[in-house]
Amino acid sequence: MVAEPVSDTTLKGRVSKHTVELLADHLAASSPSFPRRRFVRAALKGLTELELKARIIHVADALADALPKPFPRAAAIIQGANASAPETGPSLFAYWPLCTFVERYGTDHFDESFAVMHGLTRLASCEFAIRPLLDREPERAFTVLRRWAEDRDPHVRRLVSEGTRPRLPWGPRLKALQRDPSPSIPLLDRLYDDDELYVRRSVANHLNDISKDHPDLAVEIAGRWRGRGRGAAPGTDPGAKRAAPRSEWVIRHALRSLVKQGHTGALTLLGFGPAKLDLDAFELSTRRLRFGDTMGLHLEIHALADADLVIDYAVHHLKANGTLSPKVFKWATRQVKRGERLVLDKRHRIRPISTRRYYPGAHRCEVLINGESLAIEDFELFAVE
Q1: Which end of the chain is more exposed for a tag (fewer CB within 10 A), N or C?
Q2: What is the pLDDT along the chain (385 residues), one digit of tens a residue?
C-alpha cells in the first residue's frame, strides 16, 4: 500500500492533496489525455475548509468537470483504470470520489453505472452509489444483483447485501425496502453462509436493519438459517463456537438490537427463554445525582433452575414533555445452575452525549433479564448542565 503523509489525523484529513494526486494518477494511467493538473487544481481549491462528506462531493464534482461527457465516455475511462489498479494500492479515500461521481452523474445511465461499480467496488465500496439506481429502477437493479450474488469477487457479493441495506449508516434510507424488504431477502438467503466473513458481516447488519422495521420477520428469517450452513473453524468468526455453523454468529449479530430491546422471539431463538429466578436485592448507590455523577447498581438473584441469562438495565430518561423514555444498556451474560446465587455490580455515569438532552426530575432504573422486567427503582437527576 502507498504510504500516506499524515498531517491532519482526522477522518476528513484522509481526503487530502495526497489522495487527490493518487486519484489523478489512477485516471491518467488509463487515459493519458486526462487533464491531471486542471483536475488537481480544482479538487484542492477550498478542500481543507470542508468536512469529510463535503470533501468527497467536492472532488467528485471536480471529476465531473475534468472527465469527458457524456457519462458513458467517462465511465469507460474509470473502468479502464479500475481494471489495472492493484487491490493493495491507495486507500479507499483516494477512490471514494469515483463512487460518488457515479452516484451523482450516472443515474441516467443504468448499464454503464452498474458496469463501473462492479469493478470499482473492490477499491472503494459502492454501497452509496448504488442506492439512487435502486430507488429509480428497482426491478432492473435486483435482476443484476441476483446475478452478482453469485459473483466470484467477494467485494461484489458484499455490495449486493450492503448496497441494499434499508438503513445504511451515512446513506439515504431505502424507504421502499423499509416498507417491504422482500426483494432483498432471497439475496440474503444466498449470502448468509458466504465463504467470506466480510460478506457475512454485511448480511448480519442488513438483517439487523430489517429487524428495526419488521422485528418478527427478522426472527423468522434467522430461524430459517438456524443450524444450516457449514461449520466454522475455531477463531474464524468473532464469538463462533467450535464446529457451530457459520450461521450462528450471523444470527446473533443480526438479532443484537432485538436482544437489547428484549424481543421475546429473538431471545427464545437464541436460547434465552423465560428464567425462573428470585430477586434478593436490587439497589442504587444514590437516589439523587448531579449531571456528570456516577450511580452504582447492585443486583442479587437466586436461580430456581438452570438457565442462560441476558442481563440488561434500562435507564428511563425524563423528556421535555414529562414522559419517560427508556434506553437499554448491556450488563452481563451468564449461565447459572439451579440454586446458584448471582451477585453483580455496575456503574452508570450520567454523562453528556450528542444524541440526548437531559432534564432535571424523576428518572427510573430497571433490570431486565431475558427481556423481562425484574425490578425498578427511582432516582432524581438535578443540576443539569
Answers
A1: C
A2: 344 455 567 889 999 999 999 999 999 998 999 999 999 999 999 999 999 999 999 999 999 999 999 999 999 999 999 887 876 666 789 999 999 999 999 999 999 999 999 999 999 999 999 999 999 999 999 999 999 999 999 999 999 999 999 999 999 999 999 999 999 999 999 999 999 999 999 999 999 999 999 999 999 999 999 877 666 544 455 544 444 578 999 999 999 999 988 898 999 999 898 899 999 999 999 999 998 899 999 999 999 999 999 999 999 999 999 999 999 999 999 999 999 999 999 999 998 887 888 999 999 999 999 988 999 999 999 876 6
CA distance 110 to 285: 61
Residues 6+ apart with CB under 8 A from 252: 239, 270
Q: Taking a C-beta distance cutoff of 8 angstroms, is the pair 93, 10 a contact? A: no
Does the structural domain 277-382 have CATH classification 3.30.2060.10?
A: no
Peptide bond into 70 cis (omega under 30): yes
Beta bridge partners of 289: 381
Q: What are phi and psi of 296, to 5 degrees?
A: -90, 140
Which helix H or strand E contains 97, and what residues bound it? helix 92-105
For 205-218, give the DSSP string. HHHHHHHHH-HHHH
SS3 356: strand
Spatial separation of the C-alpha atoms in residues 116 and 108, rounded to whole Å = 14
Q: Which of 240, 173, 180, 242 is nearest to 204 (CA)?
A: 240
Owner of C-alpha cell 479507499? 92
Name the residue among 329, 283, 315, 299 with its Cα closest to residue 381: 315
d(CA 248, CA 244): 7
Provide CB contacts within 8 A for 367, sequence distance 6+.
282, 297, 299, 311, 312, 313, 373, 374, 375, 376
**Residue spans per domain, the chain:** 1-129, 167-269, 277-382
Task: Tell me if the pTM is above 0.90.
Answer: no
Q: For 78, phi and psi rounded to 5 degrees?
A: -65, -45
**Cα(112)–Cα(106) distance, rounded to whole angstroms?**
8
